[in-house]
Amino acid sequence: MANPMADEVRRFKGSDEKNPFEAMSERFDRAAQLLGLDADLYAVMRVPSREIKVYVPVRMDTGHIQVFEGFRVQHNFARGPAKGGIRYAPDVNIDEVKALSAWMTWKCAVVNVPFGGGKGGIICNPQQMSEGELERLTRRYTAELIDFIGPDKDVPAPDMNTNEQTMAWIMDTYSMHARHTVTAVVTGKPVALGGSLGRREATGRGVMFCVNEAIKRYDLTPEKTSVVVQGSGNVGGIGALLMHEHGYKVVGISDIGSGIYNPAGLDIPNVLEYLKKNRTLEAYPGADAVSNKDLLELPCDVLTPCATENQITSENADRLKCKILAEGANGPTTPKADKILHEKGIFVIPDILANAGGVTVSYFEWVQDRMGYFWPEAQVNARLEEKMVASFSELSHYAGKHDVDTRTAAYMLAIDRVAFDTRMRGIYA
To answer: What residue ranges define each of the domains in the chain, with the CATH number in brackets?
Structure first.
C-alpha cells in the first residue's frame, strides 16, 4: 500500500521556499513521520476543514461600488472553535491564509488552549481607504460570514492592518444579526466593549516570557543580554518596550522601511515616541541607520523577527549572529533556513510558541466575555506568564525526549495533542 505521507513529502521537494502553506506542510510532514501518525489521521489533519471565499461589494466614497475578494479558512475544530485573526493587505492570498490558519491550530495546541485554527483576509490597501470605506468593507465581510462565525464556531481577532475598531465593527454587525449583544464573537476588542486588559500587549509580552526562559540556557541575565527586534508594531514595538523595561539591552529595531542600531543600547521609549511623531525611524539621532535586511545580521544574543513571513531564508540564515532566535512573527523562517540554523547551533523559539501570547490572552478574553466577569490586568499577565513558562518547559522536555530541534518538537507536540482529541472523538466519515 502506498504511503500517503511519503507521497506528500516528495511533492514538496524542490518547491517554493517562500510559499507559507508549503513551508507549514513540510514541517507538518516531518513531525507526522517522526510521530508515526496514523495515515487516516494524517489525511484529515493535513488539510483545512473549510475554505471560504467571498466577494464583498463596498460603496466607496466616490459613490461607486468596488468588489473586494476575501477569505476565511477554518483549519481544525477538534479541540474547540476556530480561532485566528483577519488581515487586510493588497498581497493576501489563499495559500497565506491556509498556512496561517494551520499555524493557529498548532499554536493553540502548543499552549494547550481549547481552540482550533482559523484565519481570514481581504485583498485591499487599507492605507488608501477612508475609515468609512473600511467600516463598510468590514461589516459586509462579516455579513457574508455570518453563518460561519460565532463564539462556538469561529472567533476572529485583529491581525495585520486590523485593530480594536475593526473588531468592534465585527462584533456590532454580528450582534445586529443575532438581535442581542454577542461580545464573545471576536477578541481584541476595546476594553469598554468586552475586551481584556493586557490583550494589546500580550503577543509582545509572550515573546519576552519565552526569552526570559531561553536565556537561562546561556547563564545570561536580562542586563547582560543584547536584543535586536525586527518590527516596531503591536508585536515588535511592544515587545521591545517590555524587554527594555525588564532590563534587556535592545541594540537594534526597525520599522517597515528601515532600522537603527546602537551597540550601547537604545532608549526604546524615546525611539517609539520618535516613530509615532515622524512615522519613520529615518534620521533618528544617536544611532546608525541599517536596512531591514542588515538588521537581521547584527551581532546580538537574541534576535526577534516580529514583522512578517520569510525574513530568514537559505540566503541569509548563515549570516545570523544571534544565540537565540525568538520568532515573534508568524512564519519568519523558511524550512531550508531551519537546517542552517540548527547546524549553527542557534536556539530557536518557534513562532507557534513565541507568538502564542496573543491567542492565549484572546482565550482569556473569550472566557471573560462568556462569564461576564473581567480580571484585573495583573491577573491576566500572571496567567499569561504561567501559561507561556509551562509551555516552554513542556516543549523543551519534548525536544529532549525525542532528540529533535525545538521547531520539530513544537509541531510534534501540537500534532500529538490534536491527533489525540481527533482519535477520541472519532472521524465522522
So the answer is: 49-181 (3.40.50.10860), 202-354 (3.40.50.720)
